[in-house]
């Protein structure tokens, strides 16, 4: 560390400024004392919603805790996140989808698939041994009315105190936003797909 | 699958609508034929930038490919993503930070730390065996002028063709946005911290 004596004028000003800023930041951190299980909603049209949820699965595993992932729309394709994370000790992974509506073109089957997936997710939402529940693409099931809010919200509200829930998908319903502790809206400023680049291994798959 | 005969009116309309939509989506997918190494910028003030990068590390590992992670600001605290991902075969993990400016309060040391980290990152950006390079919190080093754009941009531009780079951090510089193939701006609509909840294990750490 530089000693105070040999600092340039810029370095001295930097030290003063950052010392003041540290006091402000430390006060804010000291004011945040609560520990609780969070509901996070990751919505918007941009890239990074599901990826972010999988990053939190990795974080959870870093503490030797358990995570349960429910993928509600994506089909059975062998994607990277599933290949890697589903084989980790402590991870439960359920594919509860068969692709987007325009793939199946079968409303009755899509609803049945969604309901079967939700029944499984409810078990994880009642299990205090599960530290993180990822409900990937859940927003669509609500927006398409495959699941009602009366079915979805109570199991999330009544989950174990310290359990975290991450919900992803575009256009999150206002009631999900209300329920959430943290909401990130991911704006699509630029996307390689529009420049003719298809989904890339390790990034999109 | 339901047969066409036993469909309700709503189900039949759904089938027609989704069939049309599938044609539109399929045409777009058919138009995207390029494979290339992408630059992704995840910026904005909301929760989920670094988490998303770590999710893409998990995806990369799912294909047995290699990832290199450089954390430019965060200190040596034992966080979940590092505990879990850094011990995976195929992952190189470098802590190139000692905390935010207001923690060290030492401009000269912060610049030296940043430059040492960037020297290591340049090696990964020149290595075709590395499929994904994560430059976590790189935006701050540019915004604080610890690293110049002339130092940062060429190694990214000249990297191996199929290597992906993910850059995270608030307030990404316009030149980084220009260079990127995909840019997501994560808006902070709500954050548990403002309601008095401190950083939670498995979510923020």
TrEMBL record, chains A, B:
Pathways involved: Cofactor biosynthesis; adenosylcobalamin biosynthesis; adenosylcobalamin from cob(II)yrinate a,c-diamide: step 2/7
Localization terms from the record: Cytoplasm
Species this protein is from: Novosphingobium mangrovi
Primary location class: cytoplasm
NCBIfam families cross-referenced by the UniProt entry: cobA, PRK05986.1
Parts of the chain that traverse the membrane: none
Keyword Cytoplasm among record annotations: yes
Principal EC category: transferase
Name of this chain's protein: Corrinoid adenosyltransferase
Function: Required for both de novo synthesis of the corrin ring for the assimilation of exogenous corrinoids. Participates in the adenosylation of a variety of incomplete and complete corrinoids.
The reaction(s) this protein catalyses: 2 cob(II)yrinate a,c diamide + reduced [electron-transfer flavoprotein] + 2 ATP = 2 adenosylcob(III)yrinate a,c-diamide + 2 triphosphate + oxidized [electron-transfer flavoprotein] + 3 H(+); 2 cob(II)alamin + reduced [electron-transfer flavoprotein] + 2 ATP = 2 adenosylcob(III)alamin + 2 triphosphate + oxidized [electron-transfer flavoprotein] + 3 H(+)
Signal sequence residues: none
Family: Belongs to the Cob(I)alamin adenosyltransferase family.
InterPro entries xrefs: CblAdoTrfase_CobA, Co_AT_N_dom, P-loop_NTPase
One Gene Ontology MF term: corrinoid adenosyltransferase activity
């Amino acid at each position: 560390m530089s000693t105070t004596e040999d600092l340039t004028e810029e370095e001295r000003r930097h030290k003063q400024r950052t010392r003041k800023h540290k006091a402000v930041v430390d006060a804010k951190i000291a004011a945040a004392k609560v520990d609780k299980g969070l509901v996070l909603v990751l919505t918007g049209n941009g890239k990074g919603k599901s990826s972010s949820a999988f990053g939190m699965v990795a974080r959870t595993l870093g503490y030797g805790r358990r995570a349960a992932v429910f993928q509600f729309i994506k089909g059975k394709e062998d994607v990277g996140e599933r290949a890697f994370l589903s084989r980790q000790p402590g991870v439960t992974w359920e594919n509860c989808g068969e692709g987007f509506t325009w793939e199946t073109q079968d409303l009755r089957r899509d609803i049945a698939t969604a309901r079967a997936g939700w029944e499984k997710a409810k078990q994880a939402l009642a299990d205090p041994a599960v530290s993180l529940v990822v409900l990937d693409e859940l927003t669509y099931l609500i927006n398409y009315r495959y699941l009602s809010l009366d079915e979805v919200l109570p199991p999330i509200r009544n989950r174990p105190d310290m359990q975290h829930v991450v919900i992803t998908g575009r256009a999150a319903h206002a009631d999900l936003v209300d329920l959430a502790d943290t909401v990130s809206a991911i704006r699509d400023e630029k996307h390689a797909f529009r420049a003719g680049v298809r989904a890339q291994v390790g990034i999109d798959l």
